[in-house]
Model the fold of this input.
Amino acid sequence: MHNSSRRGFMGKAFGAVAGVGAVGSLVAMKKTWDPLPSVKAAGFTTLDMSIYKENQLVTEKWRGKPIFVLKKTAAMVASQTDEQKERDIVVDGSHFMLAIGLCTHLGCIPAYKGEAEGFLCACHGGKFDWAGVVTQVPPPRGFDIPPFKIDGNKVILGEVGPEYKQMKETGITL
Done:
């Protein structure tokens, strides 16, 4: 800096101010892109699994999507195939079908028709059994299972637990 002139000083000062301004702008832009705390809080839903009754479908809500919760009867559990067993969520010894209640064909909401018939999607005639497995096409795959974590007798939707990781690794859900 032995060749210091007023012009050199002004150039360096301007460069420093511009750099600080650029960093401040980037920080402000990142804050606007981050989801609001209220949106982050809405990403988790806690379900108390002890309140559900056998063979009674309950539709919960998670991130604006319907979540089907079906507590299976002893007869359902005894008659399950291996594919159906893999999709079960077991909480305190009870078996549950927990799935995003949207048809994987076009996103319609299928109706539950009982243990014998399972789910029927009225839009294009797709059928799912009470475990969420496709029994009549056009749906390309079974019901998707939302990320979940089991905590005692509660299931926390939106958190990824070891059970969900295993289902994802084996290709049961996306």
